[in-house]
Each structure stands twice: as C-alpha cells, then as structure tokens.
C-alpha cells in the first residue's frame, strides 16, 4: 500500500509547519475595480442600484467576512456614486475594523427599520429598479417591497455572478494555496491509517493539520470507509477501518475566505478486480471532463464528456446507478459551491478565470463509491489543474 499507513497522527502533526509562501491578500484597488465592474453590469441589466447582502459577496466587494443574521448588514451600490454600508449603529466600530474599502455609512437603531432606510436611499437617488443579491433572505426582500412599492426589484445575479465567476490572478493564487495545503493533508491522512482506526480520529487529525499548515479549520471533512463510501455525502456514524475497505476522504479549508475541496479514494489493503475497474473508469471520466473544458464550450459539455466515458463502461445512463448520481462539478471561490456548474442545462460558456471542481463520482449501490475530486481554472487557452489528479488506486499520492 504505497503511501497508506505506517505512521501516526502525532508523528505527522509534529512535522507540519506553516505554509512557506503564503499568497498575497486581495488589494483595495482590486476591490474597487470589482465595484466598478458591478456598477457596469448592474446598469447593463437595467437596474439603478445593487444591494449586496452580508455573506460571501460582501466579503468579495468590501472584505467584510460577516454572515447574515436577522439584522440587516448590506452594501448598496448605485450605478453612479459611492457605495453605502447599511448596518446597526452598535456595529459601526466592528464593521469599520473589517472594511477594506472606503464607504459612506447609513446606520439604524434597534427600533428602526433598515429596509425603510434602503427604500429612502433609493428614492433619494431617483432609482426605479433595485437589483438584489440572490442570497439576501426573503425576510428583507419582502420588507423592501412593502417599504418601496414603486421600486421594481430584480435579481442581482447578473452583476454579482458576472463578477465573481471570473477569478483574478490574485484569487487563483489564494485558491492554489488552499488546495495545495488540503492535498498535503490528504497525503498525511493516508499515512496515519491503520486497521481499526475510527473515522473521527482522521477528521480530528485533518482539522488540526489544516490549522497548523496555515489554513482555517476544516470547512468540512467527510471520512467514509467501506459501505459508507457508496453515499455521496456519507452516512452517520463513526466507522472503523477494515482490511479491503474503500476509503473516501473529502475535505477542505480556506485561505482568506477562498476554498479548497478535494476528494481522494483508495483501498486500505489490496484492491479487488471490481474496485480497480471502477477506479479506472472514474479516473478516465475525470480526465475526459478536464479535456472537454475548452474556452467557449458550454459548462454542460464537460458533464456530458464524463458521462460518455461511464456509459461506455456500462454505467448509468444519466443519473441511474450504478453510475454518476450528481453533476460533474461546481464553481468554487469564496463560496464552496457557486455558479457556474458543470451540469446538463448550464449553458454558460467557459471563459478565462472560471474555477471548477471536477468530481464525476461513481456509486455502486450497497458496495462502495469512488470520487476523485480535483479543481481546475480556465486559462486563455484551456484548463489548468490546481492539483494533479490521483495516479492510481494503490498509489494515491504517486
């Protein structure tokens, strides 16, 4: 079992050091350029202003890593003029400490309506149409509609996705660091495997390793053995590893908010003929998807390329099992799943800067599943891997 077993968690953790070449943070100039692009795309969509909700999009434009709550924190961007932050008055100091750009502030007290504030600003600007972040909870959308009945509300997805789908070199560098760190934790996790180890021990090891190597705690970590690998997102419990089990580990971290999300599948022990055959089909499908990711081609064509390989191997068709039960991949960046998607029906043309997972999982019901997940970004002349795919079922790391 090349690269599997032979060590233990304490030994591996003792040799993990912080990442030697951390990627540079996103600059203020880049954030301001994003806002200018959002203005242009908002104008092109026929709207007069764009409302950005707390969450990954607010982080993208302003550097504020806050999630949404029942208190409205948002940024309103007019197509002409400076952006305005809307927030509770008591949060001003904390918000200013996080902001990576200069903005005006419109603050509200606990007994005041923040959506009325949004409505008043739009009226003051003479705005007729407001584009709203699709991630803004309906609670606030409904209140804006009641506070400003003359205001037309439309989706802000054309502006937000139009910016966020196309990553800059600085974003790609941050994602490269996150993915490289996670791949290193995969390599080390394989080394601590032993008969009888519980999945929870591996999960704890990967989380601690992600922290030591310079990332955030694991954003998620799924460790499945044997029968559990046949479920794309696993099953509850804390299984123990046995000889001959398929191992499936899917995990990730973040670097300055940018995600990694990598899966490795291999056997603890000697693979049988069926495990080898299915692993080889999975590897071929992942390779076909990568080769199909050419500039200008529709996202759905990548999904179809993977399915063609699996169907030729006697699996499927479509989402039928044994076969591939889900899409081939998803966009990734400040959100772990974000547009566009490598799935039938998504006709978004592939273009420079787009970043995707490539994970055409194969499920053999009641037996095992194999998912190989690496990510790629689109260069001007085609796809580039962030991490090199697994080379063999019994040599997962070369």
From TrEMBL:
Residue ranges of the TM segments: none
Gene3D superfamilies: Creatinase/methionine aminopeptidase superfamily, Creatinase/prolidase N-terminal domain
Pfam family, one: Creatinase_N
Domain Peptidase M24: 174-378
Assigned keywords, A-Z: Hydrolase, Metal-binding, Metalloprotease, Protease
Keyword Acetylation found: no
Cited SUPFAM superfamilies: Creatinase/aminopeptidase (SSF55920), Creatinase/prolidase N-terminal domain (SSF53092)
Domain Creatinase N-terminal, first and last residues per copy: 34-165
Membership in a protein family: Belongs to the peptidase M24B family.
Protein name: X-Pro dipeptidase
